[in-house]
Amino acid sequence: MIAESISGINELTTEEKLLLSNELWAEVQAKMDPQTTDPQLVQELRQRLEEYEKDPSAVVSWEEVKQKFRRKNAES
């Protein structure tokens, strides 16, 4: 596993690892060629956007998700 070869990664908290994974994903996305994006993924994202536009109250914000995650980890 590549994570084992990265010094200090095991000392990160769960929250820090989650933030790191988000940063890595953002970097990958920034370098991706839109021409190579999976058509099924594009369709799924379009469907989710359409559902959101129909009923914006049916979603949870990223901030709410992070807060719930932090509370759950604090209880563990």
Overview of the structural elements:
This protein has 76 residues and is mainly α. The protein folds into two domains: 1-32, no CATH class; 36-76, no CATH class. It is built from three helices and no strands. The protein has helices spanning 14-31, 39-54, 62-75. The protein is flat. It starts with 13 loop residues before the first helix and ends with a helix.
What features would you highlight for this structure?
single chain, 76 residues, mainly alpha, 2 domains
User: How far is the first residue's CA from the last residue's CA?
Assistant: 26 Å
Radius of gyration: 17 Å
Question: Which structural class fits the helix and strand makeup?
Answer: mainly alpha
Q: Categorize the overall geometry.
A: flat
Determine the number of helices (DSSP H or I, runs of at least 4 residues). 3
Question: Could you give a short description of this structure?
Answer:
The protein has helices at residues 14-31, 39-54, 62-75. It is mainly alpha-helical.
SSE diagram, text form:
Blueprint: H1 14-31, H2 39-54, H3 62-75
